[in-house]
Task: structure prediction
Amino acid sequence: MNFDMGQYGAYIWPAYAISALALGGLSVWTVAAWRRAKARLAALEKPRAEKPRRETNT
Amino acid sequence: MNWLFKYANPHNFMRLSNVVLPVAAIATVLCLVAGLYFSFSVPPDYQQGTTITLLFIHVPADLVAMAAYVVIAVCSLLSLVWRHPLSDTAARAAAPLGAVFTVLGLITGALWGKPMWGTYWVWDARLTSFLLLLFLYLGYMALWNAIEDEVRAGRAAAILAMISVVNIPIIKFSVDWWSTLHQGETIMAGKLAPVYLPPFLLMMAGYMLLFLTLWMMRIRTAIVERRARNLMVSA
Amino acid sequence: MSPFLTLLTRDIKLAARSGGGAALALSFFALVATLMPLGVGADLKLLARIAGGVLWVGAVLAALLSLDRLFQGDFEDGSLELIALSPLSLEMTSFAKIAAHWLSTGLPLTLLSPLLALMFNLAPAPMAILFVSLLLGTPAVSAVGAIGASLTLSLKRGGLILPLIILPLLAPVVIFGAGAVAAVSDGMAGTGALELLGAFAVAAVLLSPFAAAASVRLNLGN
Result:
């Protein structure tokens, strides 16, 4: 692999860096939101699962 | 059409995406890694020198930015005409992703422009059109956020998306017309030499797959959030 | 009088009563035209070159001012529901409101433009083209604006989103309108640009009532 970009390096590396940061940040944000949502749902579903079922007469 | 409605059911969508998502994620990583390897293994271009490497991250960003808006428009059509239940969610989920790719396209375009044309910002047809596309994204997201009732917000945003997408080719045409009027043709890369195809196609695929992966995840998140909200209401 | 004309005259009268209708838009237009030279300098040759663009942008912004109230006023006091139930279709209602808006803002702005163009040292030929371009283009501004207004009519602070939504859609109008003026200033024919502008305007005026009606229906809860 050739990393010598010559005179254009000053433009190429920031472009790649910003792209990596933006897309990486986007991915982190997306995964974090997913995890948060999953955790919240699990927390809400837990007490329901543990609630004892009441016997009915009929 | 029926298969589309099969996955309109959130439950079915979750089951489908449980399988597809990991595959897409892995494919994304593979394509991007391979693409990056090739991007830095190709010889410099005869005309553009080493800045040809910027093509591999600029054009894919631009194309995903455009594709995302088309996705939003298609979902909006499904929502308005066929009342496909998950499409509003899907459209809304795609918007921030598309906006980020648009910004990336603008930034990488500017960084490519400086060595090519001498200034960071150039009012060339492509950059200007993409700036307008960014505003379309922002307006779309703002409308979603402004209307409180989610169903109404979805319908209103769908109408806006349909109108905007009809306008995008017109905007592009008018900006092209304007740009040739003022500066003559600004030449972007002509035909791509075959040696540059592998990195370009791999990065293209990687970017598209990344969008798909993140999009699916955001739809799943929205479904789970709705379930949580319903539980809270009925508790 | 037909329901269409009734609504049309009513809206024009309402526009005149609240906020002065045309007066507000005209003052804003003139102010923008005044601030520009203060910002860029009084070089008359420069002003003549930028006149088309500055006056076009000023006209669009001035027309924007009264757009958010296009449907909102009637929505808030319940009149919109009554109008929806009337024999006049929502599409024709929207068309009437677009026409009323143009007559009370777009047209007055067009009529004021030669005076402002004079202040920008614009030559007679481009001045005439500016007039024609505004005459053709301001209906498009009202039409596209009506779409934005109907989408945001339920929002209390919808006025902030409205420009964000419709200004990108109006880019072609500004491009062709100002482009026509610039072409004639440079000694070329402006007809190409005017034709494109006219086509856009016709399409916008014919199609936007349908979009606006759909949005109104959506907001009325049908």
